[in-house]
Amino acid sequence: MTNVLIAGGAGFLGSHLLDRLLRRKDIARLIVIDNLWTGLRNNLAHINDPRVDIQQVDAERVDSVTTFDEIYHLASPASPPWYMAEPLRTVSANVLGTLRLLAALKPHGRFCFTSTSEVYGDPLVSPQPESYRGSVDCTGPRASYDESKRCAEAILFEARRTQGVRIKVVRLFNVFGPRTRPDDGRAVSNFITQGLRGSPITVYGAGSQTRSWGYVDDVVDALERFFWLEESEFPGPLNIGNDREVPVVEVAHYVRRHFPRSQIQHLDPVPQDPTNRRPDLTLARRHLPGWECKISYEEGVDRTIRWFRNTVSNLHSPKSL
Ligand code: UDP
């Protein structure tokens, strides 16, 4: 039987991955750790499984007395305003968190890590294949996130090379969907919460910057397949996301169609905001045959609006969630 630890299990993505892990019958015990910095207890409110033990602890403070067959490290903020507000804590979660969690892995265990398309910085090639080394400013405003994810990748690939640790690393492009915090600050959830409040929908700069918007269910399908269903020892890094590239302003206009009271408001551009982002999915299609993002951003936005309407009752005090 398998003992599993998921770090960041109360987060947006972590809680969805936890739901998939709980479908597995071979798992005897599943420790969920989360410091509830960006994660929410509410994301785990539906969990009622005797195998699960939820602990409020930082990833970098996990003890290595108990060791695990599988470790999933998703404990990091992913939204720019959140990681920019506490950059050193972000570095700690990714770099020290990875080192500390590695120490809790059994000798033949498997370590799964969610890295980011931010490792490509403001990319000079499009779409971005995994072999692209990126265009990142190590002293820029996004460095705490970009560089700490890059460093975590380096730690894991060195652990593999020097100690034979089994690793699986994905690079996630933009993900959105249910269980995002209302005060998360990323584009889709911001536009929806603004629309629900009837306030202006804020587009930073002209909005011509592009992203590739992946709906959470499609992304978690890929994680499930890569992390445990396909049995190869391919370590990644593997791009995961939707390869339909859409300008931010187009998403804003799409959301606004649901909320005619809200106007689009253009604010100052964000310094060093990447101009474009689109995954090259050649490797993903090879390793996860049959996997595709099935849900368009339009359908994903519609579903996310329904979720926000049904679930987030008090948008004026999101901290109470
Ligand atoms: N963005 C925006 N208005 C918002 C939030 C984000 O125009 O209220 C823009 C942001 O500047 C970026 C894009 O939307 O160009 C995606 O931002 P997000 O924070 O979702 O993700 P990331 O920048 O990490 O890709």
TrEMBL record:
Positions of transmembrane segments: none
Protein keywords: Decarboxylase, Lyase, NAD
PANTHER family on file: UDP-GLUCURONIC ACID DECARBOXYLASE 1, UDP-GLUCURONIC ACID DECARBOXYLASE-RELATED
Does the record carry Lyase as a key word? yes
Q: Which Pfam families match?
A: Epimerase
Query: Can you say what this protein is called?
Result: NAD-dependent epimerase/dehydratase family protein
Gene3D superfamilies given in the database record? NAD(P)-binding Rossmann-like Domain
Species source reads: Paracraurococcus lichenis
Q: Where is the NAD-dependent epimerase/dehydratase domain?
A: 4-228
Q: Which superkingdom does the taxonomy of this entry point to?
A: Bacteria
Instruction: Give the cofactors, semicolon-separated.
Output: NAD(+)
